[in-house]
Amino acid sequence: MTQPKVRKHRTWLWVVELVLVMLLATAILYVSDYSHATPEATAVAATATTLDNGTLAFGNPDAANGIIFYPGGKVEYTAYAPLMQALSQKGFLCLLVKMPFNLAVLDTGAANGLPALYPNISHWYMAGHSLGGSMAALYISDHHDLFDGLILLAAYSTADLRQKNLKVLTMYGSQDTVLSADRLTQYRDNLPTDAQTVVIEGGCHAYFGDYGVQKGDGVPTITREQQVEKTVEAIVAFAGV
Q1: Is 196 buried (19+), middle (13-18) or exposed (0-12) by CB count in 10 A?
Q2: Fewer CB within 10 Å, N- or C-terminus of the chain?
Q3: Are 201 and 231 in contact (CB under 8 A)?
């Protein structure tokens, strides 16, 4: 009399296992499909100092100013090595954080403990590109006492930073069609009233890094090198270096 119940129970177990396998396969496919750093960016990354957690350090560890950078979602973090190197040449220590499966949302606290490794640095800034920028904003909202400011590259803050006593710089390219203009406007009120905005004429979403063309992005009218140069100029002016 109990045999039909046993078969029904086994059927449900089989269905659950099948669903779990499908979900796992979907997740694996999702995280394995990401934008790779170019060979040139990889070569620049090889010049950095690698910390125990995979973070890449560029520049003088005794610099006055430090930047902790969260990479964009599903972008190999070494793609941002050229930008980090360029900033380090202007006097910043730049810490390029490695994220699990190239997704900062999986480790928003990746910056924990990094400032303490460099006690001689007087001014710290959180920064990030796209999803990494939003996660950097989320992190700094709970650790604002450790930082002077936030740098958002093609990103916005879903966290309310108005009362955090932070300087904020938002930058994006005029040709960027990946960044949502509606969300940029929607979350603008989360930033301090004196937050700065810089629009890079001719710039696009992908050119803050070096990982090729990004799907859905606009057509840039400047080179990646020019966008990096303009980005560095704006950050130097913002930090008052």
Answers
A1: middle
A2: N
A3: no
Low-confidence ranges of the chain (pLDDT < 70): 1-33
d(CA 108, CA 106): 6
Number of H helices, E strands in the chain: 6, 8
Structure pTM? Answer: 0.88
Sheet (strand 167-173) strand order: 49-50, 56-58, 92-96, 65-70, 123-129, 149-153, 167-173, 196-200
CA distance 69 to 79: 12
Give the DSSP letter string of 25-50: HHHHHHHH--BPPPHHHHHHHTTSEE
The torsion angles phi and psi of 211, rounded to 5 degrees, stand at -140, 20
pLDDT of residue 80: 98
pLDDT for residue 15: 57
In the chain, the DSSP E strands lie at: 49-50, 56-58, 65-70, 92-96, 123-129, 149-153, 167-173, 196-200
Contacts of 26 (CB under 8 A, 6+ apart): none
- What SS3 state is found at 199? strand
Residue-wise pLDDT tens digits, 23-72: 444 444 444 568 999 999 999 999 999 999 999 999 999 999 999 999 99
Query: With the C-alpha atoms ordered 90, 237, 62, 128, is the resulting torsion angle positive or negative?
Result: negative
CA of 9: how far to CAs of 12, 17, 18, 161, in Å? Answer: 5, 12, 14, 52
The pLDDT value given to residue 23: 47
